[in-house]
Amino acid sequence: MRELAGGLWTWTAPHPEWGDDPSWGPEVRSYALQTDDSVILFDPIAPPQELLDRNVQVVLTAEWHGRDAQKLGVPIRGDDLPPQVTAQPAFFPGERTLWIPGQKALVAGDSLPDGGAMPDAWLESEWAKATREEYNESLRPLLDLPVELILPTHGDPVLDDAQKALRAALS
Fold first, then answer.
1. pLDDT tens, position by position, 17-44
2. Which residue intervals of the chain are DSSP H helices?
3. Which pairs count as long-range contacts for 119-123, CB under 8 Å and 24+ apart, including other chains?
4. Among 3, 7, 60, 83, which one is least packed by beta carbons within 10 Å?
5. pLDDT(2) > 70
6. What b/e string do you get for 80-105 counting C-beta neighbours within 10 Å, with b at 16 or more?
C-alpha cells in the first residue's frame, strides 16, 4: 500500500478473471480515502487489513468493478455517495468516474485506462462500438474539473501533469 497524498492510498492485486488479455494487465488497482469518520474504498480488491479495522464504506466506478466488495460485508454506496465523493461522467453505460474534490483526484474505471485514452481496440469492440469522437464527447465534461491526480483502476496513477494528460486523452 502506498500513500499518494494525505489520506489517499493505493494498492494493486491480481484480477481473478484476467486471462492473458493484452489490452490490460493482470494487476488492477484500488484506492482508499481516509475521512474524519471512515475509510472509503474505491473498486476494492484485496484491501489491506489495516484499512478494514475502521468504519469502511465502498464506492464503485461500475457494478462490474465490485471485485472484493461483497466479501467485505459492508454496504456498497450506489447513488448515495459519501459527501467527499461526487459522480462524474464516464464512457460506458453503468459506469461513472468519481471525483474527490478535497484531493483534486479523479478515480477512473474503464473509461481512462492507464490514466489516458481508451485504446482503439476497446472502442471497436462489441461492448463499446463507438467512434473516438463519441468517446471524447462523453468524457469532455471532465476537463472542467481542476484535476491534479488521475487514479485509474487499470494502470498507475497519474501524479504529474494530470490535467495535461486528461486533455491529451480527450483530444
1. 766 666 666 789 999 999 999 999 999 9
2. 49-52, 120-123, 132-139, 162-169
3. 119/23, 121/23, 122/23
4. 83
5. yes
6. ebeebbeebebbbeebbbbbbeebeb
Q: What 3-state DSSP class applies to 100?
A: strand
* C-alpha triplet 42, 99, 79: angle, nearest 5°: 70
Burial class (CB in 10 A: 0-12, 13-18, 19+), 160: exposed
pTM of the model: 0.93
- For strands 86-88 and 76-77, give the pairing: unpaired
pLDDT tens digits for 125-147? 887 889 999 999 999 999 999 99
Give dist(CA 64, CA 133) in Å, integer. Answer: 25
